[in-house]
Design goal:
Number of strands: 28
CATH class of the largest domain: Alpha Beta
Largest sheet: 7 strands, mixed
Catalytic activity: [thioredoxin]-dithiol + NADP(+) = [thioredoxin]-disulfide + NADPH + H(+)
Keywords: Flavoprotein, Oxidoreductase
GO molecular function: thioredoxin-disulfide reductase (NADPH) activity
Radius of gyration: 25 Å
Helix content: 25-40%
Protein name: FAD-binding protein
InterPro entries: FAD/NAD-bd_sf (IPR036188), FAD/NAD-binding_dom (IPR023753), Ferredoxin-NADP_redctase_2 (IPR050097)
Number of helices: 15
Structural class: alpha/beta
């Protein structure tokens, strides 16, 4: 396989020369560099490359090409190389310019480009290369060729093989799946020797796991800890954005911190292929990348992690909160932060539930997207995660239909995402609609849609269904002493009823539950904003409240 290409286009020879110099100096060992002086030349070259089966990882275009916006060329790139990262090169002086900012926003919202980048300064311009490297990593992850990728080989798409892919998805661990009967699957198995039990995981360090349990994966990844009754200053339940934030702030402030999760890092955020409105990431960041960074940050500060272990009980004992685990282990904390988050609500249609992993997926749009190339797929949901999934899948699928129960997209989706969805030509939006049936012989092949207003039903062909509906908090295991609303979300602060907080002997702190010293943050909390940024904020606030509680001697 030839090395992937980096393509740069500018009709100013001096500016193009500066970009070419930087690309060749840093990346020519692993990528080929192709530079063109006009958009027409570039399009002709891209068409030839596509016809030859080449891979283009990145296209850089000047702000103005042949008197037209460079975004016009980048919009055409999506048609030819739908997975290439498309970047507009802008002058340094345009950062902060309102007109330039509005043009960039409109181009991204319209799906005409992916990112912008300030032109390279005289070398060494490490900011330029940091951005280029992040774009190339995003491309590699889409191609399932990122560093430290885990291979999964199974007999079928569904069953335990799918469960393992879900585990790796929750871990934000890059991975790829092969059927054992495929050429790629046989090649991977041949490389690791004869294996009698499937599915098989080949870890990035070469370790091979045959039909592993979740605990086996945790041990292999080095995230298993002894849970034989150790005491901690802070125990966090849940490793989504709120839990990771609490771990970073707790550990950095000297608290002996343990984070426990039945899966691994990131929570629902790992299903977001591009979060564009998170503070400090002007070019956007994937949920998986954000989770990996936060995990490493907490780890370096000294937080410990117990993954693939589920908390099943919570009780007060001798001034501590004791948590029992499904593995039989026990941990105790002087304070506890509940950050279990929420999962997508099950559709509850038996024929579709039977096809989970075989065309029916809860979340998973980021990892399963390559399977939908040229197919008709459906996404169910009206929140940001559904919009992000539809946009990501549209880069692979022939057509994506977004099925929304509400009457409008604006009812639950951020404005910038609504704009992008509406501007993407191969996304169809069906509002006021729900999925009521479907099926297939071993793999999904059809759905039944119902119009919620008129009640009429329609059968449609579908190769894949991605479900991102509702929010079901992971709180069924909590004791009755932890007050919850009728949907299971944890009550905190002023929302705790007077009756439930009587035994506190005081008003609960802002994020404190009806049990003293037990806090809740993020999506699991009643009244939360259901946004990554707010969950991160609540995680940090919870630690400040822990300190207040300790200082007060409560």
């Amino acid at each position: 396989m030839n090395r992937p290409l980096l393509v740069a286009v500018d009709d100013d020879p001096d500016l193009l020369g500066e970009v070419e110099r930087e690309l060749r100096h840093r990346y020519e060992h692993d990528y080929r560099v192709c530079c063109r002086r006009s958009p027409n030349e570039a399009l002709a070259a891209l068409e030839e490359l596509a016809a030859a089966g080449e891979q283009v990882a990145l296209v850089l275009a000047g702000e103005v090409l042949a008197g037209e916006p460079g975004t016009r060329l980048l919009a055409e790139v999506r048609r030819i190389f739908p997975h290439a990262q498309r970047v507009l090169l802008i002058r340094w002086g345009h950062i902060g310019d309102p007109v330039a900012g509005e043009a960039i926003f409109e181009a991204i919202a319209g799906g005409h480009m992916d990112h912008y980048l300030v032109r390279p300064a005289p070398p060494p311009d490490e900011q330029f290369h940091q951005a280029i490297s992040s774009f190339l990593l995003a491309w590699a992850e889409e191609q399932h060729s990122a560093p430290y990728t885990t291979d999964v080989i199974g007999k079928t798409w569904s069953g335990r093989a799918y469960e393992l892919r879900e585990v790796l998805e929750r871990c934000a661990m890059p991975h790829r799946f092969f059927l054992a009967s495929s050429d790629d699957g046989r090649a991977v198995l041949a490389g690791v020797g004869t294996r009698t039990r499937l599915p098989v995981l080949v870890m990035p360090d070469g370790n091979v796991l045959e039909d592993p349990s979740d605990a086996d994966i945790a041990r292999s990844a080095g995230t298993a800890v002894d849970t034989g009754g150790d005491e901690y200053d802070l125990v966090i339940v849940g490793c989504g954005p709120a839990g990771l934030s609490a771990a970073v702030y707790g550990a950095s402030e000297g608290l002996r911190t343990l984070l426990v999760d039945s899966g691994s890092i990131g929570g629902q955020a790992t299903y977001s292929s591009a979060i564009r409105n998170y503070l400090g990431f002007p070019r956007g960041v994937s949920g998986g990348e954000l989770a990996r960074r936060a995990y490493e940050q907490a780890w370096v500060f000294g937080a410990r992690f117990a993954f693939m272990q589920r908390v099943t009980t919570l009780r007060a004992e001798s001034g501590m909160t004791v948590l029992g685990l499904n593995t039989g282990g026990v941990v105790a904390g002087r304070s506890v932060v509940l950050a279990m988050g929420a999962s997508y609500r099950r559709l509850g249609v038996a024929p579709l539930e039977a096809l989970q992993g075989a065309g029916v997926f809860y979340g998973a749009a980021a990892t399963e997207a390559p399977l939908v190339a040229g197919e008709d797929v459906y996404v169910v949901g009206g929140a940001n995660s559904a919009g992000q999934a539809a946009l990501h899948l549209a880069r692979y699928a022939r057509r994506v239909t977004l099925v929304v129960r509400a009457g409008t997209l604006d009812a639950g989706m951020s404005h910038y995402l609504v704009r992008q969805v509406e501007a993407t030509p191969n996304i169809v939006v069906r509002t006021g609609t729900e999925v009521v049936d479907g099926g297939g012989d071993g793999w999904l092949d059809h759905l039944v849609l119902r119009d919620r207003a008129g009640g009429g039903e329609e059968q449609v062909g579908a190769h894949d269904l991605f479900l991102m509906i509702g929010a079901r908090p992971h709180t069924a295991w909590l004791p009755e002493s932890v007050e919850r609303d009728r949907d299971g979300f944890v009550m905190t602060g002023p929302d705790v009823s007077a009756e439930a907080s009587q035994h506190l002997g005081r008003a609960p702190l802002a994020l404190e539950t009806s049990v003293p010293g037990v806090f809740a943050a993020g999506d699991v909390r009643h009244g939360s904003a259901k946004r990554v940024a707010s969950a991160v904020g609540e995680g940090s606030i919870a630690i400040r409240l822990v300190h207040r509680l300790v200082a007060a001697g409560s």
